[in-house]
Write the structure tokens for this entry.
Amino acid sequence: MAISLSSAHRRYLFYGLLLLLISAVFKLVEIETSMPVFFQGDSSDAGFMLVENLQTNQFSRRYIIVLNDSGDGASQLPELTKQLIKQLEQRDDVVRVWPSNQPPIDFEHVFEDYAQHASQIYSLNPEQEASELFDPDSFVQRAAKLKQALLSPQAYLVKPVASHDPLLLTFNAFKHWRDKFQPQVDAQSRIAHLMVQSRPQAFDFEAQQQLQVAIDSVFTQLNRQHGNRFEYQITGVPMFAVAAQKEIKADVQKVTMLSSVSVVFAFLLLLRSFKALHWTALILISAMAVGALLTTLVFGSTHALTIALGATLIGVCIDYPIHTMVHSAASKPPDAWGTVRRIWPSLVLGGMTTMIGYLALAFTGYPGFQQIAVFALSGIASALLLTRYILPALLENMVLHYPNIPGIKQWLNYCVRSRTSLRIVIALLVVAAITTYPRLQWLDDLEKLSGSSMQQLKKIDQSIRARLSTIEAGRVVLIEADTLEHALQKNEQATLILQQLQEDGAVDDFYPLYPWLVSQQLQQRNLNVYQQHTTSLSQQRWHTALATQGLSVSRLGNLSADDGATLDAEKILQSQVKELIAAQVIQKNDRTALVIWLGPHQPEIVVDAMQSVDSVRYISQRDTVNTMAQRYRTTAVKALSYGLLTIFVLLVLRYCNLLTAFNTLLPALCAIIFIFGLWSILKQPISFLHLIGSLLAVAICVDYGIFYSENRSGNPLLTYQAMGASMLTTLAAFASLSISTNPLLQTLSVAVTLGVGIGFLLCPVLIKTDEQDHPL
Amino acid sequence: MVTHIKITLFSVLLCIVCTLTLAETISQQSSEWSDLVTLQKTTSFRYDETRNLEMLDTPWQGGGLLLASKDGTLVKLQMRPQRKVMAITPGEMIYFDSETEERRRLPLSTPHPMTRQALIFQELLQGRLDKISTDYDIAFKKKAPNWTLTLKPKATHDKPVFTEIIMRGSIDNTTRKIHLKETGGDSSTLSMQLLEIGPQLEFMIERLLREALGQ
């Protein structure tokens, strides 16, 4: 029914459809800007759970501010710190502000709570430690130590513990943590660190940006009051999140703007018609709108990077109207309907090969590229259909300029004259390029793919964190189990091993979950051993020891422990202790993963040691992400191979001739071989992005092979001019990506621009048509 | 009408006179208080300490030297029963047990019960009445030859570390006695006897601080 519509009706239908599409885009399309969502997606692997957890837990909402007093005389930092804390804590988007040397929990009460369970938590290995802990001969000495502790400045901590746990077993449990509670004092008192717990999610860009501006403004105002004697630095996940978002936003704006302007400029230069530009733009806008809508419908939102990369679709989809227009301009009299019918099979085949290229992206594993695939497929299909069924109606009664690209005719003639020698040169170059392949280097470090502003932030972050903590960023022992209890049991085994490694010097420091969380199994073992050793005889000896030191037997003499309530890990995770350990406990999808942070250590020894405990392993967050990149790279190689094979099969099916299919594919293949050779010579490490860029270049180049090989106009120069016009607009679109600050977009730009340019130039050399020997 | 205005004017004048008189009395008292309590020069005392702890059946006895410099640094060199150095500098608390070689440092900005105690002590000896008076009600009595300063936490003070602080001293400042009652029920008494005044003590303070810091 649609085919029988008049041209005027088709125009009105198109306008209506366009309005509907644009309204739907404004109403329905949600833009996502989180980089982890684009790269990591959802995974059930514990390593990825850890990475995800690090990006979303409450620690991710925390800022670290470093204050530096560079003024003369006595330091005014304590005063500034107080004022800053007071002013920031008044804000609704700030939960709490505290000096980093002061733990965010009330140890006095926390220890008293744990002391009530001392007989259940005192040791990781109670059977082995019992003889030392409950040796009645050591009671006199222990009573003396207790007295010392009660008289020391630490009495405020010891007294509440001793009333429940006279043997001070609680401190035995926490002995590994003891030094970590000591606030560090800067010798010169010229540097102070403040922690700011923000309320909004780390990736709530708007809220976090407001807070960052507020922090800066409060500091500037206070600093002015103190004669500008202070400097400050700030870090934290929200800083990265906001910077990344700014970078992406700026990239999207720049790329979209430049890509559009350059494509428009190329179009006007070639076809010299604002009217044609107007219709082409509307077709492309429709294609992009369909892409954004379908992507949002499938994924719930469209990522900003998808739109940035999707903008390059302008350069691909514009080929179809341009081909139609150039061929139509050459036909006498102008016949857009006849032209589009004639070249339609080539357009469909070209469109399908491009779609295969983008579809292969979906299989690379990156969630973001699955989005791009949906975006591109729907965009290309829409552009093709609009070119076939709407564009001729729009072009009716329009006079189009035939583009005469300088150098095209000369290059075509030169190729015809010197084809054999050119082919020999190309064959030699192909061989030369392939011989360089063993030197190809792979890049699987995703960190190197972040923009320059990120690198700067990372440097600041590393310098701040190095001063604050001994934790080696992102290197942990990871414990996985089906329940929290099982995970805790394994955690206790791993902690024992780490204690041994620490004694051996292989691990400098670590942050265990014991005794914050203790498995029910270990609590029972502790209690059993405790009850066995606290007999009436030992109790009597303890009383004697207390009396010797003048300590109160009535207050400190009771060593009995009953089978009372145990320490409930789930309850602890709801208490204030959560502030310390929440980032180390990940519970998701009925699985529990526990994390033990490590200080400086020898990775190989830790890896080996952890192999002895089932479901416990050493992982590096960075290695995990890079393993993921490695996996994506392998998949990208497969995607490239399968993509090429599928395109080849499609061509074989189309031409029913292996040689023709191969010849059509050859310019694209050679282009890719050259690009990889070039990367190899330039020693540029190849990431999955290079592979993906190559795949796109192949998909687009094959179109040229098809157009040139099928030569639907019967005039090779006309066909090549049309291809040239398409190629120039594609180059304009992809070359625009190179101005992006994101290396991802830059890499795609280089790969596709080079691939498309080389592929275009090789078509008349490698593909022979009957008419080619008689160019216009 | 005129009578009404006269009465109002008279009342206002009376209020002004009373306020000025009261302010003068408080100011004089504060000044007197400050002159007696504040250690104006670097000073050393010999001290004897008795601590009554809930968890001790018999009171603990100790003693040693207490040195105070005019910048607010206090060094307590405990010599009996074990040697220990405890110091409060303008920025931090330092603890050193010579027997166990245990060293501790704590910035005074840390809101610990320990630092709260130390700050009160420091502010008292520096005569910083304004700071203490925000949390404690202060009563000063002078009856020759002694004076007594009593501090009790205000009802609004949410985390008092002491329920009462009584400081007694002789007007000639040769003896002092400080009695501290802690919220947990423990108490301690520090009896101090003036030993020496003068800048020469700074060297000793410096040396003890270095020892405590392990330098």
About this structure: Chain A touches chain B at residues 74-75, 78, 81-82, 99, 101-102, 108, 147-148, 150-156, 159, 162-163, 182-183, 185, 189, 547, 550-553, 555-556 (CB under 8 Å).
